[in-house]
Amino acid sequence: MAEPADAGTGSLRAIVWEQISGSPPRSWRRWIGKDHAKAVRVVRDELAADRLIRVERHRVLFIPVERIVPRKAYLSRRLAERVGRAIRGGQPVGRMERDLRVLAALAGAARMKGVVGSGEARRHQNRIEQLSVPVEPIATALRKSVEAARSSAAGG
After folding, report:
1. Which among 93, 115, 107 has a CA at the least distance from the CA of 146?
2. In a 3-state reduction of DSSP, which class is residue 39?
3. Residues pairing with 57 in the sheet
4. How much is the pTM?
5. pLDDT tens track of the chain, all 156 residues?
6. Each residue's pLDDT tens digit, 72-81
């Protein structure tokens, strides 16, 4: 299996591609839960290297804490607004940009704060399902992983 041409060495896509191509078939839920801390570090480091975010490191009671600050916060807000509008409706799903459609599907599946609230996600569940068609198994696995993490956090 050949690696995609646009997957840079050391990028999250390259790391995941290497793991998936060298592994027996597994569920998307397993891949979403695998090495999530490493994935966060890789993406954080890529965004910092591209100067899209600033990582502020400090300590709270001797515990190292990182705060991620977007360098152009207005772009993050603008993207969150676009994704939220895609979830709420308006434009037909088939006429939306593929990237926006996928972002909206994943944000809806994860119930991302700042984009869509839990109640709003329930109201627009049919729309989120329509948006999820191109990435269905991934969106379902993400939703289940987020729900499992929230229920385990609530339980103890």
Report:
1. 107
2. helix
3. 66
4. 0.71
5. 444 445 455 677 787 788 888 888 888 777 777 777 888 888 899 999 999 999 999 999 999 999 999 999 898 899 999 999 999 987 888 899 999 999 999 999 888 888 887 778 788 889 999 999 989 888 888 888 888 888 887 775
6. 989 889 999 9
What angle, 0 to 180 degrees and rounded to 10, lies between the N-to-C axes of helices 136-155 and 98-110? 30
Q: How far apart are CA 141 and CA 83, in angstroms?
A: 20
pLDDT score of 3: 46
Contacts of 91 by beta carbon, 8 Å cutoff, 6+ apart: 85
> C-alpha distances in angstroms, 60 versus 31, 56, 65?
32, 13, 7
DSSP 78-104: HHHHHHHHHHH-SS-GGGS-HHHHHHH
What is the Cα–Cα distance from 20 to 108, expressed in whole angstroms?
25
Q: Enumerate residues 6+ apart whose C-beta is below 8 A from 21.
A: 1, 3
> Which tokens is 40 given?
């966060």
- Tell me the three state secondary structure of residue 114: coil
